[in-house]
Structure formats: structure tokens, C-alpha cells
Amino acid sequence: MKSFKEYLNESLTNDDLVRARYFGKKAYSRRIENNPKKDVVFVNGFLNGMDVKTHSTLEREYKKGYEEAKKDEDSSKLRSTKSSQQALKQAKQRRELEKKEAERKKEEEKKLEKNPYYKKTIEYDVEDVTCDKCGGAGYIENFKHNRMGECFKCKTKGTLKQRVKKVKWVFDQTKYDKDHPNADWWEGMIS
Hints:
It contains 6 helices and 2 strands; from the N terminus they run ααααββαα. The chain is an alpha+beta fold.
């Protein structure tokens, strides 16, 4: 003998239940209240074409779909916050490493400044850098009306020449030899 639930659901197919859940998910994305009777699209577009005895089952499936969509959004928010926290953590670690490297270079420079046989030389070098106006494309989409949108800053090359300052410490061998005239003799005795 059939139960009352089986009797109600015997005219429903699995596709009908899936469609009812789909309407629930859509209702959540449209920010409609979790009440199938107030969702005009669900009632007029789907529920009116069904038997009256199956309405409660379809409304239950609608609510399940609504709750699933709500749970999925909550979990995606949690995942996005975790990934953003991880990205912030990595950026912080990278800044700390850069800071330690800069401190190490400063200490090394202080040692070299104290040493009278090293002298500081400053060289200027020219490097190619991507254009900040066009992003390296050479053309700007919004200015197509003016000379086909070519970038006036980099002249359609996509890169700019930039002057970079480089500091080098060079060992002054002549000064060392002048202060230590017998250094070669001692080196010959040791080896």
C-alpha cells in the first residue's frame, strides 16, 4: 500500500523537483524572501502548471534550493576572506624580507665606508620600463579618435627609457699597495 507522501509525489518527476530547487536558487540571487507563494515567477511560471496535490512538495524543494544557494554564498564568502587573508599574509612576509635585505645592504655599506680601501662609485644606467600611460600596449583604446589612439608618451613602443642610479663599491688596489708596500713579499712567503 502507498504512503500518503508517495501518493502525492507519484505525478512528479525528478526534473520537476530539480526545477523547483532551481527557482529557489534564483529567488535567493534576486534577493526575494524565502516564501514560494510570494515568488510570482515560481507561482505563475511553474506551480500553476502542476497538480494541486504536488504544490507542497514543490514548495519544499523551492525552499531547499533557496537554503542551498544561501549556504553556497556563505561558504564562498568564507573562501574569499581566507584567500584575501592569505594574500595579505604573503605580502607582509614579502615586505619583511625586503626590509631585512635593505637593512643588510645598509650594514654592508657601513662596513665598506669604514674601510679606507674601498671607494664608492655611482653609475647611471638606462633601462627599459613599461609605459605607465598605455600599460605597454602602445595604443590607448579610449583615444582612437586622436591619431588612431597611439600613446604619445612612449610613441607606440610600449616601453620608456628610465635612468637608474646604481651604487658600486670598488676596491682601490693602488691605495692598498701604497699603504702596504711589502704585501707582495708577505704573500710570496706564505704561499
